Amino acid sequence: MKLLLKLLYHFLGGVHFAILLIASVVIFVVAGTVLESITESHRYASYFTYSNPVFIALLWGFFINILFSALRRWPFQVHHIPFLMTHLGLLMILGGVLVKSYFGLQGTLSLIEGGGTHDVVIPYTYAIHVEKKGLTDIPKTVSANFSLERSWSGFVPNIRTDGEFANLQLELLEFIPNAKMHYDYELKKGQEYFIDGKPRTVAETSLIMYDRGFGGYAIQSKFIDNEDHIALETPLKVSFVNLPLSTRLEDNIPKITLKITDDETKKSEIISLPYERIAEGMKWPIIKGKYIVRFQPVVHQIQHHLRLRNARSVNYANSTQPYSYEGDLLITDLRNKNTIEKTISMNNVYETWDGFRFYLANITPSDERAVKKVQIAVNHDPGKYFLTYPGANILCLGVISLFWLRQRKTR
Amino acid sequence: MKCVLIVFCFILVGCESSTATNDQSEMQEICGRNDHSNLERLPVYRAKVPRTWQRKDPEPSVSIEDTKTALCEFTIPDEKQQIKIVIHNFPLMEGKSIPPMAQIARWRNQFSVIDQTATKIIPQAYSGFVGYLLEASEQENPSAVMAWALQIAPEHHATLNYHWKIAEASHDKRMLHQMMADLTIKATGSKQLLKKFRRDIINFARSIELIQEIPESP
Q1: What is the mean pLDDT of chain A?
Q2: Cβ-Cβ contacts under 8 Å, A368 against chain B
Q3: Contact across the interface for B130 and A370, Cβ inside 8 Å
Q4: Residue B13 pLDDT > 60, yes or no?
Q5: What is the pTM of this model?
Q6: pLDDT (tens digit, 9 = 90+) per residue, B21-30?
Q7: ipTM, 2 decimals?
């Protein structure tokens, strides 16, 4: 047994294990490149390679290999210092990567000029947003911790609720990875109808929301030559068409069907919901307007509140071709209420003291016809300042001292 | 080898350019209008104002409920001449507002003979406001104008209106009513002087914003 442990210890810290790990990573990198070019989907390639649990296991393998190879030098001597420094640096960098993969944050934040938020939308995650009538100030998002990939293998979990929504039971009946939602209504724009004995044409239609969505939705149609000011409302009808799953995963819009039971009123209802990618869009009433729900990504609240003053595209001289986008922000740290002014642009990222990076990703519209909306990519690497950056410095010092001491030894 | 390493380290050092800030302006608050019941004016707007500009506010004892009275005035002195900047807001009356283009048309009509070749109407959208900037001058006269006619963007108006309807405290209702108001900024002076201070006036006008953040849509 002791011999077996000794062999294992030497294997884990040995060159053969290192070569095995490097070869595996090479296969992953090649597969990732080929998959992404074939499917034109970064998410698809990432699912089978860099975001795959096997790849994370490989990173752990590297960590163990480097750690054990350093420990094999025990008892340490002075001439081991450069070697140990390089290995410590590598371990810290790998530790930083692993900390980021488990505890990091990558999402987007949508802002409109004059408005602000600290809600970061985590893309390609799934949650059911639920609001209860009368609790308007306490909207509650119930995390529905399931994924598209798991549904491929037939995994269908139940969604649990708690707190304010303890009486509400959500059961997932169906998950369709790709579906298209269709809206339909009567009295369409440009069509003629006989109303009150006269032919009348619909001039415009608009969506009407009753009681913030708790009362449902309707389409209001206004008529031309309308001396009587007639406007008719018809119900908004919704239907879904299931589509084949595209290998370009970014194009798929999932649909779920839920059975919702309210223990208080003993009522249950079945509803299908489309996926709202940026956590905006319509919230649908359930249980006779007692709740509204939306199928959306997980929203994470950060400790930095961003307010957008002004966003603009900067064009090349005498041209309408933009070379950069800029956004003037007020960034407030919610812990100490300190506010700073900052202008971020495509190549000018802002980084907070606690490692949140804000990167301006998009502006619409790019001109001054309407108030502008921006998308800000948010990235948080919790291990950056105490693992990755110090690790890189220690690695550099270790490499330099390896050369230095070797030269002195040769002389 | 040591030299190679030292040179290599220098190559790896990135270049960082830090621009020295020489900010000659300060953030100032501008109050909205009082209502008929009391003379209290709530601070509604703020803007970056160059320190050399002179500011004049209406006396606190005077009511500025009438929209003909400016919220505040700024003067840009320059030897014998000066530029006058006036700021007005127009709280909505029974939910109705004046379209920015109607304001622009009114300002254009104030010229006896407008120089058509020098007239510019530029769309504007910033800080949650949308509207137009008018740059115009008299044909046979040195007087010119730079004027912004702005209104709160429709997306924000719907949100503010919702919060105004559900607000219970009178302070909140008054603040939201002022926040929904249309806004005008008008700078008048000679052509040469406006040309000289054009950048400062634009920076001032584009820095104006609501002090309170517009809440998220329900």
Answers
A1: 85
A2: 122-126
A3: yes
A4: no
A5: 0.81
A6: 456 889 999 9
A7: 0.85
Window 127-156 of B: residues touching A by CB (8 A cutoff) are 127-130, 152-153, 155-156
CATH number of B5-210: 3.40.1000.10
- Per residue in A352-386, pLDDT (tens digit) is 988 899 999 889 887 888 899 999 999 999 888 88
DSSP symbols for A158-176: PBP--GGGTTEEEEEEEEE
DSSP B94: T
Domain ranges across chain B: 5-210
Tokens 């390609």 found at: A124
Of the partner residues B2, B127, B153, the one whose CB lies closest to the CB of residue A310: B127
> Which residue in chain A has the smallest CA separation from B162?
A212
The Cα A390–Cα A92 span in angstroms is 8
The count of other CB atoms within 10 Å of the CB of residue B195 is: 12
Q: Which residues of chain B make contact with A136, given a CB cutoff of 8 A?
A: 218
pLDDT for A124: 84
Which structure tokens are listed for A305?
A: 């509140």
For CA atoms A44, A48, A53, A56, the dihedral sign is: negative
Within 8 A of A369 by CB-CB distance, chain B residues are 123, 125
* Chain A residues bordering chain B (beta-carbon distance below 8 Å): 112-117, 136, 212, 307, 309-310, 367-372, 400, 403-404, 407
Inform me whether the pLDDT recorded for A145 exceeds 50. Answer: no
Largest CA distance in chain A: 109
Residues of B in contact with A364 (CB under 8 A): none
Question: pLDDT tens, B61-78?
Answer: 889 988 889 999 999 988
